[in-house]
Amino acid sequence: MFISSCASSRAHAPSTSSYLRHILPQIFDSRGEKNLVTMLYELVGIARCASENHTKEAAEVVKHIGGLVLKNRGVIRQVENWGVRPLPRIWNQNRQSHIIAAHFYLKFDSSPSVQRQIKRALDSDARMLRSTIVRLGGKDLPSLIESDRVSA
């Protein structure tokens, strides 16, 4: 008797997804798909300069990262090429020594899972020497560019 009553109560219970749509309507859009919670991020990257065209590899990395953001329903707000600059010291990475590198800046909105995917892609890319992704909060936190301009 106990087993049959449990089975019958499960048949009439609402599914988890419909329950979540009822309780948390702001997370789901009109098609019933999950809306991604997006946050504003800044990415500062340093790419190697291995060829004669120094900014080519940095541009390819920015295109790849931008594609990841756009493919996952994100928004790219700003892209800046900071050019080729000398490094503060010789960096040895992937059995190569680097004295100059291409620097770039990317500001984008995406979900935290996409941000982690971007970080993994940057860490595994041999063209990248360094990268930093910072989540921007409210009005209290200045961006990396604004704090750099204020201190300069």
From TrEMBL:
CDD domains: bS6_mito
Gene Ontology molecular-function annotations: small ribosomal subunit rRNA binding; structural constituent of ribosome
Coiled-coil intervals: none
Ribonucleoprotein is among the record's keywords: yes
Assigned GO CC terms: mitochondrial small ribosomal subunit
Keywords for the protein's UniProt record, in alphabetical order: Ribonucleoprotein, Ribosomal protein
GO biological process entries: translation
InterPro entries: Ribosomal_bS6, Ribosomal_bS6_sf, Transl_elong_EF1B/ribsomal_bS6
Family according to the record: Belongs to the bacterial ribosomal protein bS6 family.
Record's protein name: 37S ribosomal protein MRP17, mitochondrial
Originating species: Wickerhamiella sorbophila
